[in-house]
């Protein structure tokens, strides 16, 4: 094992074991290196790597701290990696979204508040019946984000947030090229919202599946 990898594993073990907790400040570099049996150089490289994936927070002139380890913070690294996807993997991202998002929508049906439902309704009303494709896609992202946030599962929310980027361009192309794509999307949004208002988890799950599958089906036919 490379010395930097060994240093990363040792710091990770300290966090997993509870020796270092969220918000804790790491001991001085010289002390920590000695305690872990590492060179200061390999420890420094490990800290740099762990700060890139938001495990550690290096504060100039103050020290190095364990972050909150909040799922949204940690999964930002996923969004960064996802940005490097190739066009031929978009279908795979959509397939993952089709597995996760209907489940989140079903969960939201049992948890979403009346105020959140009213906010989603107002958002759709503001969009109107004939929005531009760009406005529709932006609204689509916010619509689904609002629903997933209402599921009460922050990990699921962060995962889906990270996966939404690669499918954005596909949704724009669909809106530009498929007949009635805009109208169909709006109708599906209304159907999802109606199921949420009825607190019908299975109907909400089904409409979310139909909604995502329609984009996936269109994309398969164009590749």
From TrEMBL:
Pfam families: FCD, GntR. The keyword Iron does not apply. Transmembrane segments: none annotated. Residues 1-69 form the HTH gntR-type domain. Gene3D superfamilies: GntR ligand-binding domain-like, Winged helix-like DNA-binding domain superfamily/Winged helix DNA-binding domain. Keywords: DNA-binding, Transcription, Transcription regulation. The keyword Transcription applies. This is GntR family transcriptional regulator. SMART domains: FCD (SM00895), HTH_GNTR (SM00345). GO terms for molecular function: DNA binding; DNA-binding transcription factor activity. It comes from the Bacteria.
């Amino acid at each position: 094992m490379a010395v930097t990898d060994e240093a990363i594993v040792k710091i990770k073990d300290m966090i997993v074991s509870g020796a270092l907790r969220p918000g804790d400040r790491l001991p001085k570099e010289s002390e920590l290196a000695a305690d872990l049996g590492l060179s200061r150089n390999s420890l420094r490289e490990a800290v740099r790597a762990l700060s890139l994936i938001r495990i550690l927070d290096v504060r100039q002139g103050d020290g190095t701290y364990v972050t909150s380890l909040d799922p949204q913070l940690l999964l930002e690294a996923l969004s960064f990696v996802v940005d490097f996807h190739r066009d031929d993997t978009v279908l795979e991202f959509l397939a993952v979204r089709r597995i996760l998002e209907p489940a989140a929508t079903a969960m939201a049906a049992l948890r979403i508040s009346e105020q959140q439902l009213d906010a989603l309704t107002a958002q759709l009303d503001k969009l109107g019946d004939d929005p531009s494709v760009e406005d529709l896609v932006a609204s689509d992202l916010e619509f689904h984000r609002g629903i997933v946030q209402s599921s009460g599962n922050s990990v699921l929310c962060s995962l889906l947030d990270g996966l939404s980027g690669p499918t954005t361009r596909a949704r724009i192309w669909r809106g530009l090229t498929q007949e009635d794509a805009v109208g169909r999307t709006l109708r599906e949004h209304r159907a999802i919202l109606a199921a949420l208002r009825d607190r019908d988890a299975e109907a909400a799950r089904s409409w979310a599946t139909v909604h995502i599958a329609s984009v996936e089906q269109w994309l398969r036919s164009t590749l």
